[in-house]
Amino acid sequence: MSDSTTNISDVLALDSLLTVDELALREKVRDFTAQRIRPKIAQWYEDAHFPREIVPELGELGVLGMHLEGYGCPGRSAVEYGLAAMELEAGDSGIRTFVSVQGSLAMTAIHRWGSEAQKEQWLPRMAAGELIGCFALTEPSAGSDPSSMTTFARETADGWVLDGAKRWIGLASIADIMVVWANTEDGIRGFLVPAGTSGVTATAIEPKLSMRASVQCDVTFDDVRLGPDAILPGAAGLRGPFTCLNEARYGIAWGAMGAARDSYEAALEYAGTRLQFGRPLAGYQLTQEKLVNMLVEIQKGTMLALHLGRLKDAGHLAPQQISLGKLNNVREAIKIAREARTILGGNGVTLDYSPLRHANNLESVRTYEGTDEVHTLILGQHITGIGAFRG
Q1: Which of 90, 245, 292, 342 has the most other CB atoms within 10 Å of its CB?
Q2: pLDDT for 65-99, tens place per residue?
Q3: Is 155 in the active site?
Q4: Cyclic nucleotide-binding domain spans which residues (predicted)?
């Protein structure tokens, strides 16, 4: 969509709240999305193909581990990371998901909880897109309740033995390094498991109706032998993985608005050129109501994401605030994508147009990093002081 349409749609002048550097970063990622993602995303989605060939390009773009400092990481602000997530997800949720798994989950776990040797070994090449990481937390019977995980790491005289299973692990079958969370005699700990380790099997989950340009896997660990230096020394208990999840959830609050904006812009452009009963669809009151309702929620959701970003950069962002952003923005983005499809009519069910692809992808986004129900319970506990997760 043209810049003029984007400006017309920025009714609240939200761009005026961004710095020159933030706007420049956004344009850089927007251009990358336009040149490297949009022309091929329909075919990637149709073929269920993750374009591994663009991973080094994403490293060169500076969006892998974007918010992290040192070890070859870009060290950009939270708002800049959010803007990048928005632009990438305007292309496709699967591409933004890769950046999130790589940076917000796997790299954050190593950066926050790893030893100096682990950081030096893995982070520079992950930031460059030379190595791919994954984050193995969810299990077949423990999705929203990771405290119930059964994957277990037993300490031995010469290291650890890991047994168990994980499910819906993004990138696992192509990852060079896995961050695996497991129970131990001392509670939940994180471990680094390099690709090719004996006893590890990662199988892509197929076929899928969502996130088709991404990779999610079942992973099994059968008598996996790890050395004593495999453990992430700084991570103990659920605080380890939850810290990483909050980084990912923050990015989702921005990214979902990218998918919503792209859906809206596709519908707006179509409505302006598609003739029905001798006039453009955009000239009918019902169509204008749909477009206005979409725009209102996109503007509100983008303003919410920006507020969260400013709080994060100031060091004041709380988990319940992230939950509110993730819950609201993904929920509204799905509504917008579905409504945009109705303006496209029958043409909207083809991959020539993005809204239904976005809607399908957003069903996964809505589920991972905490379902609507989980974030509702987080907010419910915050406002009532009563935890209602069990019982």
Answers
A1: 90
A2: 999 999 999 999 999 999 999 999 999 999 999 99
A3: no
A4: 88-163
